[in-house]
Amino acid sequence: MAIRQFEADLVTIGFGKGAKTLAAALGARGRRVVMIEQSAQMYGGTCINIGCVPTKSLVFQAEHLQQTGAGHPPDPGVYTHAVHTTADLTADLRAKNFAMLDSLATVDVLTGSASFVDAHTVSVQTADGEAIVTGEHIVIGTGSEPVVPDIPGLHGNDRVVTSTDLLVTEELPRQLVVLGGGYVGLEFAAMYARYGAEATVLERHPAILGQEDDDVAAAATELLAAAGVHIVTSAAVTAVDGATVHYEVDGVSASVQGDRILVALGRRPVTAELGLDRAGVDTRADGSVVVDQHLRTNQPHIFAVGDVNGGPQFTYVSLDDYRVVLDQLDGTGRRSTADRVAVPYVLFMTPPLARVGLTERAARADGHRVKVAALPVAKMTTVPRARIVGQPEGMMKVVVDADTDQILGAALLSHDSHEVINVVALAIRHRITASQLRDEIYTHPSMTEAFNQLLGALT
Question: Are 135 and 61 in contact (CB under 8 A)?
């Protein structure tokens, strides 16, 4: 079988948000583009297929379950239906993402494993044989994968799953043990508890959500407990024996049983098989690609976007990576990662926890003289929206510089906080003061109007 040859202005490795958007943009401008994706099941990237979209679909459906009566969890068949519905959603998005690039005359999509031959050449092992792709510019966007540590009994255990595995598991586990109390672990634990599983989280640190202020973390922990999530902190997992997870807390041995054992102990960049050494591209010890503020590697024509470059592992950051690289390839060249200010993030529990900027603890440590407002949502009488939708739980907190009235940060544990936090982020970026945000006119009934009362409570 003859080796196929391709020459391109741009070669992208990986179909994630940053790479696919860049490929589509330059393809639409008439540039020759070759997009390489290892699996046809990953067209569109991690977010669409095994990340944000399927998890949030399952969270949404869990939030809208009809309980069968006091003390009785939902029918497990509802969970199976949710998995099928989610699979249909991701399949549709996957097809649309493929068509977005395949429909462009100047773009070729190759499905297969890519590895560098040299700094300008990539070999792709496809079902139709090898393809050799030469590119003027190359973008690495291969994403990240779950880390499974060398804990005795984890590897080769059919009860052990990653988040990717669990998303397509059609049978609801009766007992789910989650190793790791980070965002992935907590989201899955809360979601599966709503579907009726007994969820236990083993967290090695003294508390979950240690990056948050104590009052915010305590409120979130209380909500998780009320949802049926059992959290064990300071838990050092020592071994896994079939369905049994052994751990120690302060030297005292204990164990817990699980039909499924979810490993949620972080993610690492997918670079091991790329042959980056042959391209002369520098990486860190964890495999992430070293880039500058313009996302260039030490090889000026090679860029790295998304999770693979060691930055924040958010789809919306990968989208901004696209903007930075596009500006380098077809713009002024001035845009950089240094331009990013007040990037929010969300833990999709119920209700979600969203935060942006500094915590109160960090603001004080940085030397700010601060004003703080922290109110339980249930006591915010001017915000009926939370009661209307049956989610009066949680709290809202904002931290403001007492000398300048500039908003330093906010934590919103409330209905629709994943939307409302963007208002705070916009205010921080554009230096809208707390007083201005407090006195704005907002629609009613909405969660955004909470700023009228919340910012009026600053002390």
Answer: no
DSSP strand pairing (244-249 vs 121-126): unpaired
Q: Is the pLDDT of residue 71 over 90?
A: no
Task: Please tell me the distance from the alpha carbon of residue 306 to that of residue 16, in angstroms, as a whole number.
Answer: 8
Was 394 annotated as part of a binding site?
Answer: no
What pLDDT is stored for residue 72 in this prediction? 57
User: Residue 57 and residue 71: Cα distance in Å, rounded?
Assistant: 25
User: 304 has which bridge partners?
Assistant: 140
CB distance 189 to 263 below 8 Å: no
Contact 138, 302 (CB under 8 A): yes
Catalytic residue among 81, 84, 155, 444: 444
Q: Domains in the chain, start-ordered, CATH in brackets?
A: 4-145+268-339 (3.50.50.60), 160-265 (3.50.50.60), 345-457 (3.30.390.30)
pLDDT at 187: 96
Asked if 262 and 163 count as a contact pair (C-beta separation under 8 A), the reply is yes
Is 143 marked as binding a ligand? yes
**Is 404 a known ligand-binding residue?**
no
The residue whose two tokens read 């996302």 is 295
Residue 153 is labelled as binding a ligand: no
Q: pTM to 2 decimals?
A: 0.92
Asked if the peptide bond before residue 351 counts as cis, ω within 30 degrees of 0, the response is: yes
Told to judge if 444 belongs to the known catalytic residues of this protein, a careful annotator would answer: yes
Residue carrying the six token digits 């369905």? 243
pLDDT at 66: 62
What does DSSP assign to residue 204? Answer: S
Evaluate if residue 69 carries a pLDDT over 80. no
Q: Which amino acid is at 338?
A: A
Q: Amino acid identity, residue 43?
A: Y
Cβ atoms of 53 and 44 closer than 8 Å: no
Does 248 carry a binding-site annotation? Answer: no
Burial class (CB in 10 A: 0-12, 13-18, 19+), 385: buried
307 contacts 318 by C-beta, under 8 angstroms: yes
Complete DSSP assignment for 119-183: TTEEEEEETTEEEEEEEEEEEE---EEE-----TT-TT-TTEE-HHHHHT--SPPSEEEEE--SH
